[in-house]
Automatic annotation (TrEMBL):
Its cofactor is Mn(2+). It comes from Trichomonas vaginalis (strain ATCC PRA-98 / G3). GO terms for biological process: deadenylation-dependent decapping of nuclear-transcribed mRNA. This is Hydrolase, NUDIX family protein. GO terms for cellular component: cytoplasm. Transmembrane segments: none annotated. Keywords: Cytoplasm, Hydrolase, Metal-binding, RNA-binding. It comes from the Eukaryota. Residues 110-237 form the Nudix hydrolase domain. Its main location: cytoplasm.
Length: 261
């Protein structure tokens, strides 16, 4: 392998970020073979597919080759891609196209509905949350973009399994959901799921998600002492839609109990 020393994304002002984007030759061999060199014909004519592969390679790189998890600017993944592509002469022409690839990826997603699940334990005191590798000290509910041909419910189930490594389909409530506005983005929809077992869950690889856990709805803390806080949208849901749903469920359960008596 030869390496091109000219990297338009080099920036050593933030040492931690530079370390995260750095790639050794041995690491590059593995990542290139795993994510780029064995792709089907026509792959490199699709900028969005390349951008998705770069993100997957980066998350794999952080999970396998780097022990450091820190909040990062989005530019780090572009620096990582440039460093990685430098090791493969056939990929040198794509280095200057990296920003445009990610721009196209963002545009392709910005009008798609975001779907997710809010998973509650049996006594409605804890909720399942995830933290992304690039924002390890913020938690959110598992969610993601709907795929073509999917219903919002199926998208919520799929995204929860992809991000939380858990099949929520037996517990999700099709008739209990809410829609919410996302700043400068398409709307989102969350479905509630109840009686979800409090099992220990670990992220799959490539690990876009670095942490999966249960947090107390009132204290917003997890039993293992992990230091994280809800992101902005999650905090609003914890203060508004979630308490309203829990109150409704308690009233429903009490009514059923009275009827049974």
């Amino acid at each position: 392998m030869s390496i091109n020393t000219e990297n338009p994304y080099d920036d050593t002002n933030h040492v931690n970020h530079f370390e995260l984007s750095a790639v050794s030759e041995e690491e590059a061999d593995d990542l290139l073979a795993r994510f780029f060199l064995n792709q089907p014909q026509g792959f490199f004519k699709k900028p969005i597919d390349i951008a998705v592969a770069i993100k997957s390679a980066y998350y794999h790189h952080l999970s396998i080759h780097k022990s450091m998890k820190t909040t990062q600017p989005k530019s780090v993944v572009s620096k990582f891609a440039a460093n990685l592509f430098n090791y493969c002469p056939d990929l040198h022409p794509y280095i200057n196209q990296i920003p445009e690839m990610f721009l196209q990826l963002r545009k392709s997603h910005q009008n798609l509905l975001t779907c997710g699940a809010i998973c509650l334990n049996k006594d409605l005191t804890k909720v399942l949350v995830i933290a992304h590798t690039i924002t390890p000290n913020q938690f959110a509910f598992p969610k993601g973009k709907i795929d073509e041909g999917e219903t919002p419910l199926l998208a919520a189930i799929r995204e929860t399994e992809e991000e939380a490594n858990f099949d929520v389909s037996p517990y999700i409530l099709e008739n209990y959901s809410f829609r919410y506005k996302r700043k400068s983005r398409a709307d989102g929809v969350f479905f509630f799921a109840t009686n979800v077992p409090e099992v220990e869950l670990k992220p799959s690889l490539p690990a876009e998600i670095c942490k999966i856990g249960w947090v107390d709805i009132n204290t917003r803390k997890s039993d293992d002492g992990y230091s994280w806080q809800p992101d902005g949208p999650t905090s609003l849901i914890l203060e508004d839609q979630l308490p309203a749903f829990i109150e409704m469920q308690k009233l429903k359960n009490n009514s059923e109990y009275i009827i049974q008596l």
